[in-house]
């Protein structure tokens, strides 16, 4: 079986380092925040080319805290996309604000920058681009629009650790960047975790208080806060993994190049990395109009796959209150119906890539009608 993700292989490669890091926390008894979290915050912020890192318990909390630090709340609107994990939209609602959705670019799966300005109203306070699958959104025009309208830019970089936009690391390009360390992410904890990266010292100070019951110092609560602290063990594990992240990223990129090479001429629509991007391939999603059949046949051949994401947020029953219906965002809706995520993890071998591609080519012979990337034709 070729797994979709192989966390056991990753652990086996760094077992001694991880076990020693966890043992160190057990001996120090710094289980919540503590020196390992502080060190990781500094190291990860520097990795992202940012000045401040604030560790929290999840990527969702990172998004939520960034919005609150920016002063966003009831009556405000935040522009984002419907083709993302629901946490992007949920965090906006947690802050009491209203999500305003715009469609995606069909080639990159990131926000259609040409649709942003029409969605701005007097209530708009922020733009939240999503660097989906590890591909950066087109940040320069987003920042230019934000500057003209006095808006905050909060990057949802939860799937994009180490991704670059024109040589700049995502997460430190906008006003704040938010990351998830869910176990399956490119940089994943042994549990949950998240971080906000920013160059704004006041935002950092506010988020540090918000994550820890609004306290400036122990038992001195200057604002109403939350219990969103990062655990010491996660900080220690993530410090170990951060040292390997660049090597793992290049391994992902090699696997993506292998897929591209072996699927060339097959008629299968493969991901398109933007010219401005260093894509880090958290997900490698092809497109097919026969997704269910292909997924079933690949599984029968011993190949696990995933779907990210089968239903856009605006069509999820839980988010019907947003008021959007079928047809509101055609590119997002088509992508949701067609994307199929292939196995992708740093330990994926060339032989495994060849096996996956051979199985796919058998499902999509060259003489069959090619599925062009939506909007590319």
UniProtKB/TrEMBL annotation:
BP GO annotations: polysaccharide biosynthetic process
Alphabetized InterPro entries for the sequence: DegT/StrS_aminotransferase (IPR000653), PyrdxlP-dep_Trfase (IPR015424), PyrdxlP-dep_Trfase_major (IPR015421), PyrdxlP-dep_Trfase_small (IPR015422)
Pfam families reported for this sequence: DegT_DnrJ_EryC1 (PF01041)
Active site positions, chain numbering: 185 (proton acceptor)
Keyword vocabulary terms for this entry: Pyridoxal phosphate
Molecular function in Gene Ontology: pyridoxal phosphate binding; transaminase activity
Coiled coil location: none
Modified residues (N6-(pyridoxal phosphate)lysine): 185
Stated family: Belongs to the DegT/DnrJ/EryC1 family.
The protein, known as: dTDP-4-amino-4,6-dideoxygalactose transaminase
